[in-house]
Design brief:
single chain; 451 residues; alpha+beta; D-Maltodextrin-Binding Protein, domain 2; 9-stranded mixed β-sheet; two-stranded antiparallel ribbon; 22 helices; globular
Length: 451
């Protein structure tokens, strides 16, 4: 019998009531980047439950688009009114940590209280300060990126899975038939975060990095140039125009062989009602309309590791960050909220807002039947073995923020300025030479980090 976690929380609210606030209530602010209305309803329910169980604390929930978070944090800092808790990408957490506004002592205390060994270590490493054993934020949820591809097409064409630069390019060329409205691959070419996510995966597979182990900026390197040249070549087999994640519609309509995406795509592949938005011509008039293919989920696999100079995985971690309030009562209240959000019922409720997209950062949660039995039945469609295989990649994911086990928070500052997406757009869309674009990007990066 399926456990209805939302019902359990609602029952808790009925038992404890909406919470008659204590006379001396501590008010804290929680900024979340989950801005969709359905997710906000769930998070508000969690906040109501927390307040019912902690009548001396009031939580003001504020939704913010992640692209606006750096400017909003800067404005709040200048005004002297920072939130007590934020939910944001690990890159932004590193950037905020470098600015000195995070409560690192409180965060490290919470990592130990929840259980350091319970976390996937690759995810935890992405939030470690340069001083080992201390943390800018707590990994809360995350996704694994990979190349999702049509196994039936590859088998028919006699092609190897797209796991190396050579096999990826060969397949992109083979399936590129624009006259038939069919394309080889989707990678980001629009000046947005998606382009950086795709590019970073290739760069890591070529052992290219932003910094060397001594912290020197080495972005404009032969390995990075080789990566950018390959990326530009691959972009020739994209659907037409500057592209971002939205062109997944081509895949869901059977017009695309491969596309970069995170595990957030799992519900689109499995459920007709979720895929519906990609089966119209609203986003791409030239694409037309399509019908849901119930076999697509079975004919799709993901290559989560790309190999060239080395094997590399890529993913993103969304973290909870404690912001120093300069007030013990507020700091303690925020830590109590963090503890509540990691409790199994609360945690699984949060993760089930986006099954497959929001993966747990705690190993034991990932194995719990309650987690694997998501309300939409997505995990059942994929199978437990495949789900656990995908999630296990969280131990080995990489990013530009880590070089040989050392964390470089400056990479978070660079990420926040979207320099790499603008560089990619310049090369793939406007035709700038790769060497010129790399030189420009490194100059911009030096400005950001003050060198």
């Amino acid at each position: 019998m399926k456990n209805n976690i939302i019902a359990i929380i609602t029952t808790a609210l009925l038992i404890f009531g909406p919470g008659i606030k204590a006379v001396f209530s501590t008010t804290i602010e929680f900024w979340t980047t989950e801005t969709q209305s359905d997710r906000m309803k769930t998070i508000r329910l969690l906040m109501d439950t927390f307040q019912a169980l902690n009548s001396d604390i009031t939580v003001n929930l504020v939704p913010l688009d992640e692209n606006n978070l750096p400017s909003q944090m800067a404005a709040a800092s200048a005004a002297g009114y920072l939130p007590a808790l934020i939910e944001a990408s690990s890159e932004l957490m590193l950037a905020f940590g470098e600015e000195g506004i995070l409560n690192i002592d409180g965060t490290t205390k919470m990592v130990m209280q929840i259980g350091k060994n319970r976390f996937f270590q690759g995810a935890l490493k992405m939030l470690e300060t340069p001083e080992s054993g201390r943390y800018y934020g707590l990994p809360y949820h995350g996704w694994i990126q990979g190349i999702w591809y049509r196994t039936d097409w590859f088998k028919k064409a006699g092609l190897d899975p797209p796991t190396t630069w050579e096999t990826i390019l060969k397949a992109a060329r083979a399936f590129y038939k624009p006259k038939k409205n069919r394309y080889g691959i989707l990678i980001g070419t629009k000046a947005e975060t998606y382009a950086e996510q795709c590019f970073t995966h290739f760069a890591l597979s070529n052992a290219a990095s932003e910094f060397d182990v001594d912290g020197e900026l080495t972005f404009n390197s032969p390995k990075m140039r080789e990566t950018l040249e390959f990326y530009a070549k691959l972009a020739n087999y994209n659907p037409p125009g500057p592209q971002t994640w939205r062109a997944r519609d081509y895949y869901l309509q059977g017009k695309l062989a491969m596309f970069f995406y995170s595990t957030y795509i799992m519900d689109d592949l499995a459920l007709a009602e979720v895929a519906a938005g990609s089966l119209t011509d609203e986003n791409f008039p030239q694409l037309g309309t399509g019908t849901f293919d119930p076999e697509l989920v079975n004919n799709t696999r993901v290559a989560a590791t790309i190999t060239h100079a080395q094997a590399a995985g890529y993913g993103a971690i969304v973290a909870l960050g404690l912001v120093d309030q300069g007030d013990k009562a507020k700091n303690d209240a925020a830590q109590r909220l963090v503890a509540f959000l990691y409790e199994p019922i609360s945690y699984i409720t949060f993760l089930h807002m986006a099954p497959g997209g929001m993966n747990p950062m705690l190993r034991d949660i990932a194995r719990m039947p309650e987690y694997l039995n998501d309300p939409k039945g997505i995990f059942k469609r994929f199978g437990r073995e495949k789900i656990e295989e995908i999630i296990s990649g969280l131990d080995s994911i990489g990013s530009f923020t880590i070089v040989r086990g050392k964390t470089f928070p400056e990479a978070g500052k660079i990420y926040a300025k979207q320099i790499i997406p603008r560089m990619i757009y310049a090369v793939t869309i406007t035709g700038m030479a790769p060497e010129e674009a790399l030189a420009w990007a490194e100059i911009q990066m030096k400005k950001v980090i003050g060198k």
